[in-house]
Amino acid sequence: MTILRDLSVLWSLFHILVLFMMLYRSRYSRKKTILLTSAAMGFLILLNMTGLVLYGARAMGKVFMLTCTIPSLLFFWYISKDKNGRFFFTFCMADTVALWIITVTNVADFYFGREQYILMFLGRLVMFPLVEWAAVRYFRKPYMELQEAVPDGWGIFAGMTMLYYILLAVMSNFPVIITARPQELPAFILVLILMPMTYATIFTSLYRQLLLYRKQQAERVLQEQKNTLEAQLSNQQQIRKMKHDMKGHTAMLSGLLAAEKIKEAQEYLKGVEIEVGVLSGPFCANPYLNAVLVHYFQKLQELEADCRMDIQVGEEELPYMELCQIISNGLENVCDAIQKLAIEEREVSVQMKYSRDYLLIRIRNRCRSGLHVEKGRMPVTEKEGHDHGFGLMTVQEAARRLDGEMFCYTENGNFVMDVMLSCRSFQKGLA
């Protein structure tokens, strides 16, 4: 009946690979990943199966970490997109779950199957696909989203999972297989029970992080909608005011012309043109961008900030939705930040101009003393006051949709947000 044992080992090795590949992120295409994995892991599986036939299950169990675990760890680390705690946690989790199934079926077969390997074979035949189904049905999608959303904090989970794997491997095989040490079996069973409970705790913590991330995303969307609506409302109010004032301007011009005061009418008309220009587009010819700029310029004036606008874009066709997202979120963060400063320190500048094939946007403001942000790192928001926080993630997402990038850093007491957008993406989006 050793054929059942060998088949169950082959089945287990294959499904360890499947379980891990369901949860990790490769840096290569799907086709290349499958080809590389098939070649490397096929060789390892063949090596371990040969060792199993030649030396037996007990001998191979003692060197399994050297013949399979460590080589596969190095291979997958090489082709993985992640080179940090996310990868190690995923790898150790898949291996530990698989080792748990292997160990449980081994113990069950020894005590209840009389080492005929039938119970071992059937147990693994059912449990591995069941775990994979549960992973696909309930776990894979939120887990992949979580890996994308949460870049830090995986190290402690990876370390805990690695220790569980080593503990399980050592207790089940050293100094001899656990079934040959019946006096230690109660403690071993407690470890087997404790492990899934620990994983449940880890997953609960990770899921709460995912819910927090989704909540933050929803808050950013609502804040963005609020900013856009406020800008549109302000623009509409200005237009209504302009329409109302035009009646008075028309009456005044009619009176001057009726009195044949041509020169005075011309001077008055110039004043009307200036007023209309201020209301319709003092910063940018694009009405959408101008509405956002006007709204935040007024908001900054209410905060008594020294605000300088240098908008060097003309009537080009622009992806105004993404640009409005970038400007409104950037300036909303500015408004939140400078409220904490003394009035004389409230300085803001906004620049937008073309440079060859790129559109450059720079928003600079004075920031609180002690704030330090290295270029390339995303600032962390504060609960009591959003210095520069989640709105920057929306800016980054909008910039990347336009084949661009965002960089934040502090410099000489100022917080700087630089956005560089590819002009070629404008034509693609507007085509």
Can you walk me through this structure?
There is one protein chain. The chain is α+β, with helices and mostly antiparallel strands and 431 residues long. It has two domains: 179 residues, no CATH class; 147 residues, Histidine kinase-like ATPase, C-terminal domain (Heat Shock Protein 90, 2-Layer Sandwich), CATH 3.30.565. Helix content is 69%, strand content 10%. It has a five-stranded mixed beta sheet with strand order 1-2-3-5-4. 27% of the residues are buried.
Shape: elongated
- Whole-Å distance between the termini? 68 Å
Beta-strand percentage range? 5-15%
Main beta sheet strand tally, sense and closure: 5 strands, mixed
- Number of structural domains: 2
Computed Rg: 32 Å
Indicate the structural class: alpha+beta
In the sheet with the most strands, the strands line up as 1-2-3-5-4
> Low-confidence parts lasting 5 or more residues at pLDDT below 50?
383-388
DSSP E strands, number: 5
Mean of the pLDDT scores?
Answer: 83
Keywords, separated by commas or semicolons:
single chain; 10% strand; 5-stranded mixed β-sheet; 12 helices; 431 residues; alpha+beta
Element layout with pairings:
Layout: H1 2-23, H2 30-55, H3 57-79, H4 85-112, H5 118-149, H6 155-173, H7 185-258, H8 262-280, H9 287-302, E1 306-312, H10 320-338, E2 347-355, E3 358-366, H11 391-401, E4 405-411, E5 414-422, H12 423-430
Parallel strand pairs: 1-2
Antiparallel strand pairs: 2-3, 3-5, 4-5
